Amino acid sequence: MSPLHFVWLYLWTAPHLLLPVVAVSMFRKRLHQDFPIFFAYLAFEFLKFCVLFAIYLRGGPPWLYARIDVLGQAGDVAFRFGILQGLLERPLAGIAALPRSLANLRMGLTTLFVVLPSILVGMFCLRIIDHWTVQSYWIIESLNAAQCGLLVLIFLWYRFWGHRMSRFPFGIALGFGLILGVELLLWAMTGLAQKYWVAADFLHMGTYHAAVLLWLYAACAREAVRSDVPSTPLPQMHDWLADLRRTTQL
Amino acid sequence: MIPLLVASSLVALVIVVFLFFQVWSRYSRDGQKMRVAGLTPVDLDAFENLTDPEEEEYLRENLSSAEFRRIQRLRIRAAKMYVAALSQNASTLVAVGQSARFHPDPEIAASGQQILQGALRLKVWCAVSFVRLNTALLFPTFLSPSNSGVSNYLTVKYLAATLGGKIAA
User: Fold this and answer.
1) Is B16 on the interface with A (CB under 8 A)?
2) Which residues, 6+ apart, have CB-to-CB distance to A217 below 8 Å?
3) CA dist., res. B44 & res. B62, Å (int)
4) Residues of chain A found within 8 Å of residue B162, distances taken between Cβ atoms
5) Residue A229 CB neighbour total at 10 angstroms
């Protein structure tokens, strides 16, 4: 086995073998209750890896590998839309009863994040049946590009609400941002020059490895619970009270 | 085909830079300073006056149509500035409420939850008001801004002030 092949095998297997560790860490901290779709995504990714690796080891037919790979990637896309939608809803979790305008906005975003992608994923699953594997990869890449935009939207959404993302959702978003951003770059790179596909493959796997390590860190690291913010505006709070008294007396 | 691929690589680079900025603003000292900004003082009486329907009716009756539109546009522009300040303050109150939720004292934690809910609602109100004010700016004769958010703001501000008093005690 050449060193390059060894590195390639490592980059393929190591991150996938770390996925159950991330899942166990999540389970121990009860994070799976807050992020059920991400938890399911980890299980799905691990299962997909097991099937593909088994086909690779047994020297299965390439067409079978390609079909399962495309189906797996379609599943990834669907899961990612669900995860992004979950992240989008988190800032509103503090409101017991949403105002009607916000409830409508939430409904619209749910439609954007779940229903529309589900239809698209379903459409290209039908194309796979028609043996249009190459086109399916193109559709997946297009959806990945759309997810990049949605991810940026999520960061801006949190900023709009003035919400600070806790460590785990921040880790999830950052990991997906890395994967999606680099994937888009590689898609362009291999599209411009086919000879770079080996380098692109390594970079893709390396990025995925980095993302999994990021998730692992976010799941394992102890979150510093901040209750110090009231100390920062404390003098101001007394001013607010005085101001309030003045305003209510008017 | 090639322009599309070049555009994709540029978008990818922008996303990577954007993510880097997110990490920087989260962990760097400068970024934290930006986040823990204080409240901007807002003169609520003046804001109430700007959005008062009776005041608007008085102006409508005593001014010519063209003059009313001009004055009303000026009032709406000023009101927009107040809403922007309120929106910024709501974000600060969200941060206060979010932190206070984890305070060991259950009373302060409960107040933090109340502040968070109120501040989020206020933030929604500010967003809706922006749309409403911008529309009113286009049609000043037919649409008028509302002042229903002021009371909401006062409630949240009062809760935050009470919380400050509790911690000081």
Assistant:
1) yes
2) A171
3) 25
4) 241
5) 21
∠B79-B83-B89 over CA atoms, to 5°? Answer: 145
Q: Which of A187, A229, A250 to mutate to test the interface with B (most CBs of B within 10 A)?
A: A229
* Distance from the B73 Cα atom to the nearest Cα atom in chain A, whole angstroms: 26
Query: Number of H helices and number of E strands within chain A?
Result: 10, 0
Tokens 């669900």, located at residue = A82
- A3-249 to CATH, choices 3.10.450, 1.20.1070, 3.30.300, 3.40.50: 1.20.1070
CA B131 to chain A, closest CA, distance in angstroms equals: 12
| Whole-Å CA distances, A198 to A89, A154, A195, A202 | 39, 32, 7, 6
Burial A15-51 (b: 16+ CB within 10 A, else e): bbebbeebbebbeeeebbebbebbbebbebbbebbeb
Which of chain B's residues have a Cβ under 8 Å away from the Cβ of A96?
A: 117
Q: Which residues of A touch B104 (CB under 8 A)?
A: 227
Q: What is the pLDDT of residue A47?
A: 95
Query: For A110-161, how does the pLDDT look when each residue is reduced to its tens digit (9 = 90+)?
Result: 666 666 656 665 665 555 555 555 556 667 777 777 788 888 888 888 888 7
Q: In which residue ranges of chain B is pLDDT below 70? A: 1-2, 4, 29-39, 142-169
- Which contiguous run of DSSP H or E holds residue B154? helix B149-168
Q: Among partner residues B5, B98, B163, which is closest to A188 by beta-carbon distance?
A: B5
Task: Tell if the CB–CB gap between A247 and B117 is shorter than 8 Å.
Answer: no
- pLDDT, greater one: A178 or A101: A178
State the helix-helix crossing angle for A234-249 and B149-168, rounded to 10 degrees.
130
The interface predicted TM-score (ipTM) is: 0.70
Are residues A184 and B12, on separate chains, in Cβ contact within 8 Å?
Answer: yes
Domain ranges in chain A? 3-249
